[in-house]
Amino acid sequence: MGRRSLVLLVFSMFVFLFGCQAGTLSENKTDPTEVPSPTLTIVPPLLTVTINDEILSTTQGSYCWSEERSKKHSMTECADTEDPLLLEKAKEGEAPSFAPNSPVTISYSGAEDLETLGVVFQTADNDTEFEVTLDQQEFELPDEPGVYYYRTFASWEIGDTSHAFRVAVE
Questions:
Q1: Predicted structure pTM score
Q2: By three-state DSSP, how is residue 16 classified?
Q3: Residue 85 and residue 149: Cα distance in Å, rounded?
Q4: Cα(135)–Cα(105) distance, rounded to whole angstroms?
Q5: Which of 67, 81, 92, 162 is deepest in the core (most CB within 10 A)?
Q6: Digit-coded pLDDT (tens) for 138-154
Q7: What is the tens place of the pLDDT at every residue in 29-56?
């Protein structure tokens, strides 16, 4: 390969590499007069489960939630997940332990005017769902020892969500 061919090859590679990079850099330039678009992510209400002043970890399930962005526009975001109860059952590690009949409080932040709230549970060795009787947004853990998996489902005029959590009664 001659000296001229080598120089031409190096020059071509240089132009190719830096030319592509220049295009990328110019795409990232912003016009200072442009107004950045608002974040488009819509977040459903966050569930807080409290037992004896301890806040439990929960698993987010499916949801559909709307937010008004202006008087003429609203946005809705929906997510379809695997059953959060199954996700809780698949978690490794021990469930947090509590005494029988300990009080459980369920609350949602980020939303007003809760329309419906339901809670069901399954035991570790039985897939049958049992409905939990709520007093406002509270209930008591069972008196029988074992691991319990709970699913909550809540709805408002502008959306709905589901969560799951697990506890051990000792």
A1: 0.73
A2: helix
A3: 7
A4: 10
A5: 162
A6: 999 999 999 999 999 99
A7: 444 444 444 555 788 999 999 999 999 9
